[in-house]
Amino acid sequence: MKTTLTLQKQILARIKTQGVKPMSKGYFKMREYVLWGLLGVFVAALSVGFAMIIFMLKGTDLDLFNKLGLSFTEKILYTIPSFWIVATVVVATIALINFRNTRRGYRTSTRQFILISALISVGLGSVAYAFNVSEFVDKAASANIPLYNDVVPLNTNAWLDPAHGLLSGTVRSKNSNSDFFLRDAESVLWHVTGDTELPEGYTFSSGDRVRLIGKAGSGDTFEVTEIVPWE
User: Is the overall model pTM greater than 0.85, yes or no?
Assistant: First the structure.
């Protein structure tokens, strides 16, 4: 009993000397709203991360790897979407820490949180991928995140590298399979010519998106040797 009274006196004395004031109930409510709002943002980010992992894996082009002469190890490294896996893990960790700071966060185990977050992320991520959100994010990341194109696997961005014989875009006007104009993602209009190799049964026309393998010439010209369907 004496110990309890002594502790109470110490607390009261500390409150008086340090001028401690009780926090209002509204503060704690606002803090809870902010934490749950942030958790929603993190879950949305996890969903985008999952969508990007799907996008990268489905965008893997083994034929392109062979054409570029990559080794088996390089193919494995380029196939694994390490950038988005790491980003997803980091966001998941921050989301867990944020959730633990909510009023009832301690009641849910880490395993339960991971399972629930994974189910939500897979569901929302699949929807985001279906509506091409992942392609938009990929383009935005490529344009705004330094070194992004150096660390992501070879995907659609690899097809906009004329210096290495890779070009992609939308056909603007077509005279023939060996003579047409193509507008790339950076709005450059290329005059494409040359002997082409088309997949069996494949044709393309103005307005279609295509990927080209060949060699960049002087100016905005490109000598194509093979045309690959966009999908």
Answer: no
